[in-house]
Amino acid sequence: xxxPTHQREDHRCEPVDIRTATRREWQRELSRAITTVxxxxxxxxxxxGAPDIAESKFPxxxxxxxxxxxxxxxxxxxLLLQALPVAAEGNDAPGYNTDPVGDLxxxxxxxxxxxxxxxxxxxxxxxxxxHCRYCFRRNFPYSEASTTPAHxxxxxxxxxxxxxxxxxxxxGGDPLSLSDDRLRALLSQLGEIDxxxxxxxxxxxxxVLPERIDDAFCEVLAMSPRPLVVVIHANHANEIxxxxxxxxxxxxxxxxxxxxxxxxxxGINDSAHELAALSRRLxxxxxxxxxxxxxxxxxxxxxxxxxxxxxxxxxxxxxxILPGYLVPKLVREVSGEPSKRNLGSR
Length: 346
Description:
TIM Barrel; disordered N terminus; ten-stranded mixed β-sheet; globular; 11 helices
């Protein structure tokens, strides 16, 4: 097997001006995403030393810029393992199912979910820039259960009719897969509802396709009639290069709060060393660690699971080596519970 070649890592969060790129560069990069296993393995120099790969009903999709951050020749690269289908996805695991967090049971109308008091979530699209192999919505029925234009008015009307809803979360898929015009219209509609105080965007785009954070997009966010909380999703410090740090620097301007949530993944970030490096890198970029999720038990992802006892030891070690504001809260989402379960409080 080819020996891993470690690329030079840039730990600085330099404000590289990616806004000078052509406005629609992100769409071109998205269209060029790698979608086949042979192409991905070739791109990372693993044609002759591939891991135990497999075909999957959940298709591969990964932007080339994200692939460029993977270490060539290393089958255990933490970025590669998040994107590459492996044979273990076909293993049966007790307790794992296609709707692990009860999304369908909490749906009020197509694409509108409410699990927790005061908050509602819109499934804005089924499209993502990357298909993460541990995705808890990898089996979600997007074609009939998302807020397509035909369903959006009903969803917004339901939110408007419930004065207890003060925050709306835009999720998916990834809401940044929507065009700027659709995002602008959606923010405007929600802004017309007096009791909606904040809008939250959950997105992986700034991490996997930072070209999405361009001038046109930032203009959309700047015009939001409500304060915006942006929650990004990074799992490993190697995901944050200078292009990502530039995107995060730009996002800090229209966002009232910039947070990160991670998933604890076996063989990827299941050590205090890896998670501390991620928290420090996020802090350098003005992002606060928010949640560290225990894996949602979705069919096909059991090989990523980290036992609770080990997870608690890792977080305990983090509290000893990091200031408290850099330690994410270890949580699990359990269907039917009124909030995420804080595992560290037991």
